[in-house]
Design brief:
The protein has 5 helices and 16 strands. By secondary structure, the chain is an alpha/beta fold.
């Protein structure tokens, strides 16, 4: 079965969101370079599609290493990611022979700035959903690209021992301190862009969980196998003011 064709939606003068299989991919144009934030996991040629939009030289930067964000990296020459993402980036969901995996990886950490020419993207470390999660702050266009750590659907905080509710709240408070620098948030799933007010909702939601208000056991995610949540009785879903987190009741406070 062939993957569905890519579609692109332009939501400001130099930014597109591209949909295919897996996460959203964002195409950001500067005066000199183009940057892809995440590449989804379609088996179709993402680069060929993007080159119908721009003829600028293109590189990739990943919000984290999960393969639904990195599966299309190999259509490009180089991808930048956090050091903690490298171990996951080429671990295919499915048959690895169906994906281009021969690409160069460079690592970046907090404070790194990508310069596209008249447009800069600052790296902000926000690991909770994934140990290598980073956000990209686009000050010129007042946008924050948040990966899977902040979205309108649900944030999964139960995938490993580093996924603590307390850590997630610390990251949201960090973004809150810088919220005067952006107006909209561009997540990797479940609708984009979303309003900056989601940050406050997540801070409050995380606090409710830390205060002992236990979430529901009725949980579903289209990105995980059927029965995944039913098999683990430690998982809960907490919903508050439009935000939703899925967490492990043993991983609330940082140890």
């Amino acid at each position: 079965m062939q993957d569905r064709p890519f579609t692109a939606r332009k939501f400001n003068k130099n930014t597109w969101v591209i949909e295919g299989v897996g996460s959203y991919s964002y195409l950001l144009l500067g005066n000199e370079k183009a940057m892809m934030i995440d590449t989804g996991m379609s088996r179709l040629n993402l680069r060929q599609f993007v080159e119908t939009i721009t003829d600028l030289p293109i590189f990739v930067a990943n919000t984290h290493g999960h393969f639904d964000h990195t599966g299309g990296n190999g259509w490009f020459d180089i991808s930048y990611m956090h050091p903690n993402s490298v171990q996951d980036a080429k671990k295919a969901f499915g048959n690895p022979e169906e994906f281009p995996l021969d690409y160069k990886i460079e690592t970046v950490t907090n404070g790194h700035v990508f310069d596209l020419g008249g447009r800069t993207l600052e790296v902000i470390e926000i690991p909770a959903h994934n140990a290598g999660s980073i956000a990209f702050l686009d000050k010129e266009n007042r946008l924050l690209f948040s990966g899977d750590e902040l979205e309108a659907g649900q944030v999964l905080l139960m995938l490993a021992d580093y996924s603590y509710v307390e850590k997630h709240q610390q990251n949201m408070k960090l973004l809150k301190k810088r919220s005067n620098e952006f107006d909209y948030i561009c997540p990797a799933h479940n609708g984009t862009p979303i309003h900056v007010s989601y940050i406050d909702a997540f801070i409050e939601n995380d606090q409710r969980v830390m205060d002992g208000i236990e979430g529901k056991q009725d949980i579903f995610s289209p990105s995980l196998p059927q029965g995944f949540f039913e098999s683990n009785k430690l998982f809960r879903r907490s919903e508050y003011k439009g935000s939703s987190i899925v967490y492990n009741i043993n991983n609330i406070f940082i140890r």
